[in-house]
Amino acid sequence: MSGRAALVVCAGLKGGGGKTTLALGLFGAFAESGARVALIDADPAGTAAAWCARAAAGSAGRHRPLSGRSDLAAWVAALRAEGEAAEILLLDLPPRDPLPLVAAALLADLVLVPVAPSALELPGAEASLALVRRVRRERADGGPEILLVPNRVSEFHPEARGFEARLAPLGVPLAPVLRLRETHERAYAEGRTVAAMAPGSPAHRELSAIARAVRARLGAAADAAPGPEERATETSGAPVVRAGYLDRPPGAEGRLDLSGYRRRWWHRFLPRVAAHEPRRG
Ligand SMILES: Nc1ncnc2c1ncn2[C@@H]1O[C@H](COP(=O)(O)OP(=O)(O)O)[C@@H](O)[C@H]1O
Ligand SMILES: [Mg+2]
After folding, report:
1. Which range, of 88-97, 111-120, 249-258, averages the lowest pLDDT?
2. Has residue 264 got a pLDDT over 80?
3. Alpha carbon of 44 to those of 81, 88, 91, 131: distances in Å?
4. Is residue 179 part of a domain?
5. Which residue's CA is the closest to the ligand 1 atom numbered 27?
6. Cβ contact 116:12 at 8 Å
7. Which residues surround ligand 2, an ion (CB under 5 A)?
8. In-domain check, residue 281
9. Using one digit for the tens of pLDDT, what is the confidence trace for 108-164?
10. Would 279 be classed as within a structural domain?
11. Is residue 280 part of a domain?
């Protein structure tokens, strides 16, 4: 049991923000770059898993919704099992339900929140970010990293103008933009990745840019990870977990090579994840 995957979560409490589109697109982009990538679809609707079943890389996808608090330990075990053979584990979350978001944020290296340029979308993104920030306070390592992903951006959409400037006050780094492109829906309908169906297309290039930003963020997380002497210490009483959750292998030179990484810190966090309950407000 090595559990070396970096956990990258596509999250957002509002439906339709582009979580699944982003998860599938990144799945294709990472697979194309030769990374061992696996995808867990935690949405009961199962759209990402259904796509995986049709796609060539079907064996790298799993449908595993979280059915409630009593299911947490088994759910985390399923994530761990899926992370065994992967470098990057993508998790596609359902809308509305805060429990999977809290659990995932406790475990994640990086949370991606796609947000479309609509006044209807911003409050959902803000609520999602607030929840992830709340989870950060639970984590001694300050993680997870967060990236907002401006999605479905179209020059014809009046609200798209100045969209990125409007996202800036949220105080979260922005990923490169994913524009509104029919390529995404077409790839989904054909059970293919954008990378395979439309190489070199604008949608493909945008997804590749986001994949690079994800790798850069994972690298930043590795740099911020505590040194060896700080690892695996728990101060008495306080439920603090300090772990080297990303041990960047020497000489990796910016390449995402997780082969030398230690166990993910969240392996040691499991009992607390299973006991965690999201607080409202
Ligand atoms: N960048 C995009 N370009 C075109 N269509 C998109 C884009 N992002 C999302 N969509 C479409 O918007 C709808 C909702 O996206 P989806 O990824 O399913 O959101 P979520 O998983 O957050 O509910 C889908 O029909 C999807 O194909
Ligand atoms: Mg979805």
Report:
1. 249-258
2. no
3. 20, 22, 13, 21
4. yes
5. 185
6. no
7. 19-20
8. no
9. 899 999 998 887 888 888 888 988 887 787 776 788 899 999 999 887 666 666 888
10. no
11. no
* Residue in 116, 231, 225 with CA at minimum distance from that of residue 177: 116
- Could you report the per-residue pLDDT of 32-80, keeping only the tens digit for each? 999 999 999 999 999 999 998 887 655 789 999 999 777 877 888 888 8
Task: Identify the band that residue 103 occupies on the pLDDT scale cut at 50, 70 and 90.
Answer: confident
Q: Give the CATH number of the domain where residue 38 resides.
A: 3.40.50.300
Ligand 1 atom nearest 153 alpha carbon? 1
Q: Which amino acid is at 111?
A: V
Distance 20 CA to ligand 1 centre (A): 7
- When the pLDDT of each residue in the chain is averaged and rounded to a whole number, the result is 76
Considering its fold, how many domains does the chain have in total? 1
Q: What's the domain range around 209? A: 6-273
C-alpha 11 to ligand 2 mean position (Å): 9
Long-range contacts formed by 188-193: CB under 8 A, 24+ apart = 188/21, 188/24, 188/51, 191/51, 191/54, 191/55, 192/55, 192/56, 193/24, 193/25, 193/27, 193/28, 193/29, 193/31, 193/32, 193/55, 193/57
